Amino acid sequence: MRRALPLSALVVVTSLATYAVAAQPAGHRARAYLAVHFALLALMLAGWRLLRGVRAVRVAVLVGLAVRLALVGVDTVTTTDVTRYLWDGAVALAGHDPYALPPLAVELTALRATVPFPVDHLDVATCYPPAALGLFALAALAGSHAWITWKLLVAAASMLTVWIVWRHLRDGDRPHDAVLAAWSPVLVLESGVGAHLDVFTALALVAAATLCARRRTSAAALAAGLGVAVKLLPAVAVIALARRARSPLRFVTLALAPLALSLFAAEIMGFTAPGSLPLVAENWSFAAPAWTLLYDRFADAYAAIRVGLALAMLLGVLVASLRADAVRAVRDALTVQLATNPVAYPWYGAGLAAVSALAPGWLGLAMLSVIPCSYEVLDGYQLRGAWEPAWWPVALNAGALVGGLGAELHAAWRRAARG
Length: 419
Prior knowledge:
globular, 21 helices, 68% helix, mainly alpha
């Protein structure tokens, strides 16, 4: 407790510093944001190393819950996505098809007079699955209070994620691993500042992994399926966990049910999903070292590279599914996905951060430590409207990938040498 209290106080102060970061003028926030990230990272690692005993870790968990609630009022300065979420929700509530009508559509002229307009991608219809659209519409129902409603929903999802991790770990031999979820800078900041949709998928992934570890495979399938219905990326968890079910086919069927039902409901309402999702999948790329290296050397093979990375991801996830431990299978599947994805947005690490608290690994920790550095691009974008990503975040992501793999191999070698 002598260590828990001062460390917890520092976590609170550092987290609240995001209000000062958000108050900075546009073009002057990235360095301050990264300073908060790395300070929280140091505190998380210190808490993970120093806090022992259920009482001390419980304090850390309570502090993690409290800071998520305290950051609800922070402006979403690291992203324009939240405005788009709420716009798409308002479009759906108004009876229009957000999968067919981009924000600039003439049919939405009246809506533009009453709902905050998105900042970018104005000529692109929505790419989010219908279940995500339902969450956006739920927040948009609050009208002028839609933004704070969304922030509260995200905070609640992140808090529930921490609670599930703590509940799963508290009676085991490593309760202190819960600090990796409670104080994770990726989870705290992507909830409190970015308020990204991936916070909900992180919740679904943690629920699926812990339920499967407790041999509740049907419930695990539904939990993973809810994540897939909100955003398709958690589909790798379905592959990783299906082998553990008595009937893998039934597991996959249950997991796909939420997506199928939400697509059916969208069809009934006249929505034409998937909207711009194929366009995004074919063209978006950012900060991913594997993609950057391959595209730099083989630019003429653009489509082949994307197909090759997708096949490499599938192979890696299938290998991860062979793990005896369900949680580690999900963790490794998410790691493979993040490493092979042409897009490495910082918020894409939320699911891995949550599941890694259940089964820490050097590779995941290394990747999550540096992935927010790509936020450096925001200063130029917010100040001049110029999207000019620097090379060094990609290099850091590559270094973390190589270094993390080396650490994992070294740890495996040491375990083998001991016995």
